[in-house]
Amino acid sequence: MQISNDFHTVDFDSIPIDSFWKTGDERENKMHRIHAYPAKFPAFITTKALEYATLKGAKINVIADTFCGCGTVAYEATRNGKDFWGCDINPVATLIAEAKSQKYSNEKLNKYFLEILSNFDLLAIARTEIENINERIKHWFREEQIENLLKLKSAIHKTIPSKSHYLKFFLCAFSNILKPTSVWLTKSIKPQVDPNKKHVDVITAFSEQFKKNLFKKKYNF
Ligand SMILES: C[S@@+](CC[C@H](N)C(=O)[O-])C[C@H]1O[C@@H](n2cnc3c(N)ncnc32)[C@H](O)[C@@H]1O
């Protein structure tokens, strides 16, 4: 085996492209974009690997991904009619993966969304709850944001039954607005505070995220 870190000696253009792995410029299914995940890999790899294994005569019923991340394989497995088993050490990853592996009706999503907004307006957060919150949260969020995020999270839980997979869909939208509503420097993947960051209203951000996550068709599959 040879290992080199001198990439200048490799002529990448001379490496022939295997037509089997060449995909068009097809955009990934919208479901793959319901939540940002830094280590996500391209979805076509799953479909191609599945196609390859089938071509080689493998009979596939279940696909497993022990480092499933945001569920790229989980969603593609479900879409291809295969059962899926996965796990990940990061609970945000498994939340996204579970949310992505379900079917949703736009009608029900819209109904829940309006109910969440009504419940948000009715809820009040006790001062002590904000004051006693974890110091790390105080570091990353301004007080007004903490109050509104606590209200929004409570409104989501108040609206949707705990066993419903719709809860995971809305928790994903909630999770995805945490970075923009915090003082984390926009566009930075490194944890860095931007003391001058423009205020982003929690409900505006949540509504925009919800609309982005809605599907054009009635169902997402
Ligand atoms: C490269 S990412 C996988 C990305 C995934 N294919 C996707 O498209 O989202 C690797 C994942 O391994 C997870 N991970 C790291 N150590 C782990 C462990 N000991 N057990 C389970 N998962 C782990 C990380 O949380 C991360 O989500």
- Overall outline: globular
Mean pLDDT: 91
- What's the number of extended β-strand segments? 2
Strand order of the largest sheet: 1-2
Domains, number: 2
Assess the beta-strand content as a share of residues: under 5%
Indicate the percent of residues in helices: 40-55%
- Poorly predicted runs of 5 or more residues: none
SSE class: mainly alpha
Ligand set: S-adenosylmethionine
Biggest sheet statistics: 2 strands, parallel
Order of helices and strands: HEHEHHHHHHHH
Distance between the termini: 44 Å
Q: Oligomeric state of the chains?
A: single chain
SSE topology:
Layout: H1 44-55, E1 62-65, H2 72-79, E2 83-86, H3 91-100, H4 106-122, H5 127-131, H6 135-140, H7 143-159, H8 165-176, H9 178-181, H10 202-213
Parallel strand pairs: 1-2
Bound molecules: S-adenosylmethionine.
